[in-house]
Amino acid sequence: MRSLTQLRRSLHSPIFWARTLQIALLCVVTVVMLGAGKSRYDRLGHELMCSCGCAQILLECNHVGCPDSARMIGELHAQLDSGNSDTQVLQWFEAKYGATILAAPIRGGFDNAAWIVPAAIFILATLGTFGIVWLWKRRSLALAGTAGLGGDLAVPGDLNPQDAALRDRIRRETEY
């Protein structure tokens, strides 16, 4: 097993960093090549929803006798053959069928809110949760700091008369 000093030396080695860079580049090239195999038709067909109400991606609509998917796939081929850009094709489908035809909103304008708001809510909720836990921990440490040496939550001399009376009543009522 390697010792800590050997591990530290290997982190400062140029060979370690060269191999790390090679692995990172291999990962990037693999991801790019996997995405490069998709055709324009396949990419755009997966950005559209079938209009029959099945709530499936256009190219994956698999229910028998779908009245809309074959017609929409034909329209997609016609739009691609006309030479329109990807954005123009998506805008044409959106103009014909409405915004619900898009599997994901197009970036730009007010549609950016559909991308930003969920992430912002998640980040704010996470920060809020950490903040609450931090306050609870701080409060519990403050209470632990006032605990007596005997392990009680509070030193009996620090109790006001109402708390002392309540504690005595609880002890009387819970005794056998």
Architecture overview:
This protein is an all-alpha fold and 176 residues long. The protein folds into three domains: 33 residues; 67 residues, Orthogonal Bundle (Helicase, Ruva Protein, domain 3), CATH 1.10.8; 62 residues. The chain has seven helices and no strands. The longest helix has 34 residues. 7% of the residues are buried. About 4% of the residues have low confidence.
Write the layout of secondary structure elements.
Elements: H1 4-11, H2 14-36, H3 40-45, H4 69-81, H5 86-97, H6 112-145, H7 161-174
The CATH topology of the largest domain comes to Helicase, Ruva Protein, domain 3
CATH superfamily of the largest domain: Cytochrome C biogenesis protein
Strand proportion, as a percent range, falls in under 5%
Shape: flat
| Helix content, binned percent | 55-70%
Brief description of this entry?
This protein is an all-alpha fold and 176 residues long. Helices cover 62% and strands 0% of the residues.
Keywords:
Helicase, Ruva Protein, domain 3; 3 domains; 0% strand; 176 residues
